[in-house]
Design goal:
Length: about 240
Amino acid sequence: MATQTGPAADAKPPSDKAPSILKNVYWKEFGLLAFVWVAFLGLQITKNYVASCSGWYWVLNSLQIPVAIGVTMYEAHGLITGKRVLSSKGSQQQSKLRVGQALIYSLFGILAGIIGGLLGMGGGFIMGPLFLELGIHPQVSSATATFTMMFSSSMSVVEYYLLHRFPMPYASYLTAVAFVAAIVGQHCVRKLIAWLGRASLVIFILASMIFVSALTLGGVGISNIVQKMQQHQYMGFESLCKV
């Protein structure tokens, strides 16, 4: 997790023994994320059972805003008052986060979500460079960005499964391929970092992925525009209430 509780996190003497996974998880923070996950999933599923653009449709959509703002303000208050720290920043961490910094970081998170939604990119691709700019260690930044993508994509997978919107064999195959690729990639990168002795390799990999994604999105977009222009198709905005 990116934050931990306590003044300067109640520093403990260093130890060569690695803590177990269960002891290394901040369960209060994990519970907060689980609450957001369940709340958003419930609202998204319930929204599909009401008429599009009806009063309840907009109420259910709007309820996601107070949930997100409430959790953000709770975490920001902890960082501002010093009850929580960005433990991943180590000795570079300030005792308290300034109000202006908390507002700017929250705004960047909102913009990252909007851009990711408009471009169809995972939020982790956008949050990764932001974490690096905040001074987070490259490996921690990459892990947090990956968790961000898993957090949002798992919600969509469960939603589509419950609504019967994708074939299970197809989804199972893609899940298996992604899981194996992630394990192999993590193992290879860890070996390369140990061999080269430079964690900055993570930065170059992240930058390369963003560059390739930008080229791919641009290429596909241009191709679709040319095709629609040749077929004289409508390329304006569609109605939000169109089923």
